[in-house]
Amino acid sequence: EASGSQEFTTYEMNYLSFAYPFSALRRNMIVSLNIQHLYDFNKKVSFAYSYTNNVGPPLSLDDNITYVQEGAFKPTSPAIAVQITPYISLGLTLNFWDHGLYDNKWKSEYRGEGNGFYVGFPFQVNTQINERYAMNGLRIDLFDPFHWQNVNFNLGLLWELKSNLNLGIVFKSPFDVQLDHDYRFQSSIIFPTSPASDSQDEINFRETVKLKMPMSYGIGLAYRWSDFLTFDLDAYRTDWSNYVLRDAAGYEQNPITGELQKDAHVTDTIQIRFGGEYLFIGEKRVIPVRAGIFYDPEPSKGSPDDFFGFSIGSGVAYKNIVYDIAYQYRFGRDVRSTVVGSADSSQDVDQHTVYMSLIYHF
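^ that's the sequence the OP posted. Answer follows.
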């Protein structure tokens, strides 16, 4: 009864950084300060829903459902990289998720407004659920770096295997996110012809919950065919089986399926990407042409949901300015049955994303 198309559009600053290269101790180094848009919670769904109870007391309901969710996680990330040898460079980034510069949180609102009949009596039902999650506090323990609270680290390696072949490796540590959770539920049922049967219900509470974020890691190769043409291939794994929400009572829930963690059976995902770049090098300008294909699954109960896509892009480098633009199409068919809430339901998903970037060299 709830089938139909849904569309949602959003605009965000994806990344901002300031970088300073220098030399020290006979080594090339670079430090940077970065703001990254890493987790996006924006969502909007609305649909009409019809229900008829054919077992027990006669009940029919026509309901209009609206669900809106807003928010993002944007860490502030200082970073440093050092060229250890002419062929090997190492990098370290610290991601501070609760930093005060941006309010890392998300909130949601569910509204249901409907009319129906119960054993022949007309009624109106209104339901509203408001939830808010906000980060709270930092904790760094040098002796337990895999359980830092609201902060984690990334390690990177770049190795020039040959003059035209580079290897890259990245590791992103797991960490705990401590969140203040506010919950409010309001519901009312009104019988216009039988006011004595009216009812109202309200639930309010606040708790502190802990979200365990999984580790992830990847490896990639870049092969420079010539000064003009480069190809690359990489794979990236995220351990979603270790993604857990623990509430104030100590119950561990899987945020993907909504089930207890022991019953969720969510498997890890591996992304695979292949792409290339060709440079048109002129006397004053360099114009790149880029394209790629990818497999980017989403975690789900049992096996991951399959998502595929491609990207194309170009830009221009002129004097101190580098400008780029890219388009990405990502799609999945018969997916997200876990997110919808029933194994009997699923979605066909089409995502269109445009990225634009500007780099200025001082």
